């Protein structure tokens, strides 16, 4: 059983989906502390031909709260949503796959979300559905494990609970874990890194690691499927 555990991100970059595609079970890590400068409620898009950071308005966000406790600021969100959709339309309307992705985005934002964890998790699932990535999705907040442990011990316990044989993480998390501790539990610890999937963005140069929306706008499903396997694995 291959398992990955990640915080829910808002329409995350291609590496996040590589992680999902490489595993059998994907756990949204939603009962850990919220990070204000993380990717739970924000992401980069290609607006006005340059990298632009967009953040969803939240109601009293605090790093002392768990992700699943953070609420969306509903009044500000409605204003933000109109502005965001207008920016997507203006900046991506000439992209080759605009029509189908515009429909996907509008369908997504027609739903009502109260918490940022719900919105971000559903953004991931919507893209997986479009790309026909069928995986088992779980949320850590619904699992029965001891939360009064350090970060590595919690990850190990969740893996043990799910009878994992391989635990996958993105390469940026290498400093968080010790392979020997996973080996003691008969779990192989693996780290993934995107090789740097490039594609035409109708501009000079290439802006990497933008939201998956950028990837979807410029690539068809077969091309993205190829990108999903364009990574290296280290232990």
UniProtKB/TrEMBL annotation:
Identification of the protein by name: WbqC family protein
Entry-linked InterPro entries: WbqC
Superkingdom of the organism of origin: Bacteria
Pfam family, one: WbqC
Organism ancestry: Bacteria, Pseudomonadati, Bacteroidota, Flavobacteriia, Flavobacteriales
């Amino acid at each position: 059983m291959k398992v990955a555990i990640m915080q829910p991100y808002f329409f995350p970059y291609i590496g996040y989906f590589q992680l999902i595609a490489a595993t059998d079970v994907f756990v949204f890590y939603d009962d850990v502390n919220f990070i204000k400068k993380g990717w739970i409620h924000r992401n980069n898009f290609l607006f006005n031909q340059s990298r632009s950071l967009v953040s969803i308005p939240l109601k009293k966000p605090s790093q002392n709260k768990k992700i699943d406790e953070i609420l969306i600021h509903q009044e500000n969100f409605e204003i933000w949503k109109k502005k965001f959709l207008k920016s997507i339309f203006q900046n991506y309307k000439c992209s080759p796959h605009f029509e189908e992705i515009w429909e996907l985005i509008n369908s997504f934002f027609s739903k009502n979300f109260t918490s940022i964890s719900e919105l971000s998790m559903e953004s991931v699932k919507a893209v997986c559905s479009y790309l026909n990535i069928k995986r088992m999705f779980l949320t850590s907040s619904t699992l029965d494990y001891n939360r009064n442990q350090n970060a590595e011990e919690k990850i190990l316990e969740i893996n043990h609970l799910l009878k994992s044989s391989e635990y996958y993480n993105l390469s940026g998390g290498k400093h968080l874990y010790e392979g020997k501790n996973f080996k003691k539990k008969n779990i192989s610890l693996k780290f993934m890194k995107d090789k740097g999937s490039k594609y035409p963005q109708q501009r000079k140069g290439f802006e990497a690691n933008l939201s998956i929306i950028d990837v979807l706008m410029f690539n068809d499903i077969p091309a993205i499927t190829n990108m999903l396997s364009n990574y290296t694995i280290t232990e």
